[in-house]
């Protein structure tokens, strides 16, 4: 979906839902997560149980990696002939309409799919911090999936099992958006919905994430130590459209470096993505054709018809 760029159509950022996961009223928390996922496809979670020190260390090692000389970063570069996404890539061009970012992608769960060749060895603490953060974000994502499953009137493990159970994949992406002398000419990331299940995102203090809602783009505010959750295409399909996939993009700053650390929750490549059978009835027909996940992602990548 192509959306016209309008840098001046920013609405109030405070409207994005904020969910306090420490609230003792679990029913209230669950309703807030479900409502935000139905109406927005994005929300912030605070008091989520992941320590501020761990988030600080995650940002520290990621920043240190991107501060390395280009020759060192290329030690974990994505091979030129690779059809996969893992590895370090760089795309800093002032060409009108081109993206302005470098990033590193690598799988972090399950252990059977990890290739440590794409994990930086410098800084030395990178692996330790990433493995600790993986454990914490996996627990948080599974808590959210339980809430969203029950919000569909299904057993708590319905969405997790629909994604592949313990074979569900987790991917870390660290995005680096350096200062850009021509910020209106380039986006850090173009407008898109995520092809995955959900993303759990932390950022530095520089704004840039924008979402499209009610025919307007508007800014996502920075909340220290909050995690921003975005709903992707896979939950849209599994929920038969009940939960919304959010259109979003990233702008760049003229003077400041922006960084983000999304963890992507991704269905196992071999599962069949389609509305969960319990949701389909004569009164609620299927909105999407079942499709194997790897085929779904391939067709999305090439913008081929799906349904």
UniProtKB/TrEMBL annotation:
<dbReference type="InterPro" id="IPR005123">
    <property type="entry name" value="Oxoglu/Fe-dep_dioxygenase_dom"/>
</dbReference>
<dbReference type="Pfam" id="PF14226">
    <property type="entry name" value="DIOX_N"/>
</dbReference>
<dbReference type="InterPro" id="IPR044861">
    <property type="entry name" value="IPNS-like_FE2OG_OXY"/>
</dbReference>
<dbReference type="InterPro" id="IPR050295">
    <property type="entry name" value="Plant_2OG-oxidoreductases"/>
</dbReference>
<dbReference type="InterPro" id="IPR026992">
    <property type="entry name" value="DIOX_N"/>
</dbReference>
<dbReference type="GO" id="GO:0046872">
    <property type="term" value="F:metal ion binding"/>
</dbReference>
<keyword id="KW-0479">Metal-binding</keyword>
<keyword id="KW-0560">Oxidoreductase</keyword>
<keyword id="KW-0408">Iron</keyword>
<dbReference type="GO" id="GO:0016491">
    <property type="term" value="F:oxidoreductase activity"/>
</dbReference>
<protein>
    <recommendedName>
        <fullName>Fe2OG dioxygenase domain-containing protein</fullName>
    </recommendedName>
</protein>
<comment type="similarity">
    <text>Belongs to the iron/ascorbate-dependent oxidoreductase family.</text>
</comment>
<dbReference type="InterPro" id="IPR027443">
    <property type="entry name" value="IPNS-like_sf"/>
</dbReference>
<feature type="domain" description="Fe2OG dioxygenase">
    <location>
        <begin position="168"/>
        <end position="267"/>
    </location>
</feature>
<dbReference type="Pfam" id="PF03171">
    <property type="entry name" value="2OG-FeII_Oxy"/>
</dbReference>
